[in-house]
Every structure is written in C-alpha cells, then in structure tokens.
Amino acid sequence: MAAVVGLVVLAGLVVITGRWFVWPSTDDPGRADAIVMFAGGRGERLPAAQRLADRGTAPTLVIMNGTDAAWPQANALCAGEHAYAVVCPTPDPDTTRGEARTAAALAADEGWASLILVTSDYHLRRASLLLDRCFDGDVAAVAAGGDIGVVARTRSVLHEWPATIAALIDRGC
User: Fold this and answer.
1) For the chain, how many structural domains are there in total?
2) What's the CATH number where 46 sits?
3) Inter-helix orientation angle 124-134/96-110, to 10°
4) CA 13 to chain CA mean position, Å
C-alpha cells in the first residue's frame, strides 16, 4: 500500500512539475500599458519582451536590472532610441518579489492598469503569482520559450519548487 501511495505522489509531482515549470500555460498578451520583463533568465527573456514591444503591444518596456553592467544587450536597449519607452529600474531587494514590488510601484506612479509579464517558462508560475499579489490591475503572463538544456532546466526546477512553495506560504506582496 505504501508503494502505491508513493507512486501516486510521485506521479502527481511529475504532473505538477510539468504544468508549473516546464509547459506552463501562457496568456495571449493582447494590448497593455507596459511590458515588464523580470531579469533572471536573461538569455530567452529579453528577445521575447523586445518582440512584444516591437509589435506595439505596449508603449513601454520595463527591463528589471537592465542597467547591470554584466548585461550589454539590455544596456543597449536601456540607452537606445525606440518607438516605445524603455524603463530600467533596479529592484530592491533584487529578488522576484522585489521585481514584483518595483513593477507595481512603477505601475501606480504611471497610472498603468494592465501589464504583460515576460519571464522564463520555469519562472512564470511564481513570478505571475507575486506580480498578481502586488499589482491591482490586469496581468497577462507570457512564457519566454527557449531550450535551456536538461542540466539548466533541472537546476531551475529544483530552485523553483521551494521558491514557489515559499511564495504560496508567504501570502504578502
């Protein structure tokens, strides 16, 4: 009996892992007041956010930590001229929760009622949960796809599981 229960629990964890961190549901972004890109997985996120901005889905692109000297691609966007505004705040603290708070504060200051969140597929569940708690408006969550490899995917999922559980327990913004 214990083996059956163990297999059921394991199967449940595999399904939830796939649904939350490997193939999360992503929203159709439509139009919004701003696109907000969380900084962590820089490889796949920035091109996805830039594509949305280039398509005109929002008049403003927010790149968290975009002025970090170790991120030349974002630096170029933050300093360049575009058909849309580019805002590059530094969240404090420099965490997903800090990014959500910074995005919500910026939205309040600017009078934004809708945001498009762009982040990695493995990060989408927790990032959208936190942004939804901090921001009173509408949030469309968009997963930036990309093949990050088995090792990086495993490492990301192993990080996201406890971080997501902590975010579910700590109900604050």
Assistant:
1) 1
2) 3.40.50
3) 40
4) 22
